[in-house]
Amino acid sequence: MNTTTTRGIEYLSQSRRRLLVAAALAGYPVAVAVLAALKHTGLNRWLILALYLLLLLPTVATLAVSIRYARGRIDGRCARLDERDLALRQQAYALSHRVLAAILIAVTAVTEIYLTSGNTLQLDASTFWPATMWVIVYIPALPSLMLAWIEADQPADA
Amino acid sequence: MPDGQRRVHNRLAVLRAERGLSRKQLADKLGINYQTIGYIERGDYNPSLELALTIAELFRLPIEAIFSLKPMTPLSEEIFRESPAETR
């Protein structure tokens, strides 16, 4: 294990962590939206795929850093969680629930408005795939992301 | 600190320095992570009643001498106020 990297991640300031979390949360939907938009252009399929992967790269990286930051504290695998860690974990789960509820309400409302406006929604494997991926990746990662979001800056060593 | 929670002021940093304890040493005595000491000292985390009582027991002081809902006055000022005759 690279202790320098671990220490670096551990000591990331709250503002930087929040940027990473925001990038991790926004990255995938942006990549999917860009992919959907590029599909309708005459661009080469491989070029579209390359652009999509290029857009996904920062998302994966920021997601990995955020998860790494909370590692062991969300899943309870850390041997010594003290009362502050446990309180923080509770707050992270509560905030995850609120964020998830807000996202689900927003998606349901937008879909409802779209459908009641006379449009139809064709659901097939390729349309549903991004939603499946989002659920698989983000729902388990959300508490870690929220922990990275809420934890205050580490006090300076003394 | 969670929204709506009152800040608990404390003298932990002063007491720790007075006894020459590092955050790590104090944390080891209390069985918590050393960062938690820093968060308590900075007022970013309010300890549980159990932890606050353990800290008071460790320093052999009444809990109100370490934790307060009001900002703490300097210890020297309090000592002077309590025993002016002795200082004269």
Give the structure's gist in a few sentences.
The complex is a heterodimer of chains A (158) and B (88). Chain A is mainly alpha-helical and 158 residues long.
Description:
The complex is a heterodimer of chains A (158) and B (88). Chain A is mostly helical. Helices cover 76% and strands 0% of the residues of chain A. Chain A has one domain. Chain A starts with a helix and ends in an 8-residue tail after the last helix. Chain B contains seven helices and two strands, in the order E-H-H-H-H-H-E-H-H. In chain B, helix 2 packs across helix 3. Chain B has a single domain, classed as lambda repressor-like DNA-binding domains (434 Repressor (Amino-terminal Domain)), CATH 1.10.260.
What's the topology here?
The complex is a heterodimer of chains A (158) and B (88).
Chain A: H1 3-10, H2 14-39, H3 45-70, H4 83-116, H5 125-150
Helix pairs in contact in A: 2-3, 2-5, 3-5, 4-5
Chain B: E1 9-10, H1 12-18, H2 23-30, H3 34-42, H4 49-59, H5 63-66, E2 67-68, H6 75-82, H7 84-87
Helix pairs in contact in B: 2-3
Q: How many distinct folded domains of chain B?
A: 1
Shape-level CATH architecture of chain B: Orthogonal Bundle
Task: Tell me about the largest β-sheet of chain A.
Answer: none
Structural class of chain A: mainly alpha
In terms of per-residue confidence, which ranges of chain B show pLDDT below 50 for 5 or more consecutive residues?
A: none
* CATH homologous superfamily assignment of chain B: lambda repressor-like DNA-binding domains
| Overall pLDDT metric of chain A | 87
The Cα radius of gyration of chain A reads: 19 Å
Biggest sheet of chain B: strands, sense, closure?
2 strands, antiparallel
**Total of DSSP H or I helical runs spanning 4+ residues of chain B:** 7
How would you describe this structure in keywords?
heterodimer, A: 158 residues, mainly alpha, 5 helices, 76% helix, globular, disordered N terminus, B: 88 residues, 434 Repressor (Amino-terminal Domain), two-stranded antiparallel ribbon, 7 helices
